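Collaborator request, handled under Task 6.
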Amino acid sequence: MEEKAESLLAEAMRLGVSDIHLLPYEDHYELFFRVSTGLSKISAYSIEKGERLISYFKFLSNMNVGERRKPQSGAVRYRLDGRKIELRLSTIANFRYQESLVIRMLYANPASDPGLHAFFPEQERALLDLLDHKSGLVLFSGPTGSGKTTTIYHLLRRKYADEPLQIITMEDPVEIEEPLFLQAEVNEAAGITYDLLIRQCLRHHPDILVIGEIRDEETAKMVVRSALTGHLVIATIHAKESFGVLERLRELAISSEQMKQTLLAVVSQRLVAKFCPLCAGKCTIHCSHYQVNEKSAAIYEILAGKELQNHLQNKEDGKRFVSLNDKLRKAYACGYITEKHYLENLV
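Structure tokens returned to the collaborator:
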């Protein structure tokens, strides 16, 4: 079983898989790999083999192998073919008490930055320009798996390459290991919350602060306070699009005046599968037309500068804001994405 598990992980690493799903059915298990283009079925196992594989991974991550009814989670650091990887495991049973297993694969820092894959390269330049500010707040929004963390880390690496900076990140959990940054991890069970970490990190005199997620009023207030005291702060927040981010901030008791004083930009992001001529649709997991990390690309809605300030002040400047839907429409018109993915991502 150890050889089978190692072979499974090696194949997942080769394909750049983000999650491994082992799901129970009435008389068998099915194995799925998740990549940027979605879930792909890889193989099927007997009930006995599926249960043995789950038990092995539970043992590996110090979970209770004998407990099959209660949901469990665990983690383990793994080295395979000279590469380090961290596995975050989660199990949950169905009504038949058959366990399912999901393994999140967190890859160690690659030898080189794979780059930012955007449908429209000029958007990368616009994002990089935001990091030239010495203070202020840049917010990223988008659904889970839309590449927000990847985008932020790429921009920070590019900035660090220009000049050495003290960059501190606070995440739950740390998804990308980066030795150039000071990375702190939230642990609410131990009392290590976002607002506590922000307070402590400000004493380190950082040039750039990265907050994994603004979840509550206290964190939102600390983020705004950090931006007001002369720090460049980058954070993520859940909202459908840029204007929704502003409404979400108001819900978290951030006033319009505070937004005017701190907000540099609001970025809404989507990761969309590229059209593959060989697959006549999205590029499948085994297709070699695009490399593993190039099967999808990002589309950004950037609300910044005068457009942002005019909106906060309820002013009209006569210019039409280029929305996420506009960018999606352009990508579809250019043949970069399929109609299905265009319609799926409309806001």
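The cover message to the collaborator said: "The chain has a mean pLDDT of 91. The longest strand covers residues 83-93. Please let us know whether this matches your experimental observations."
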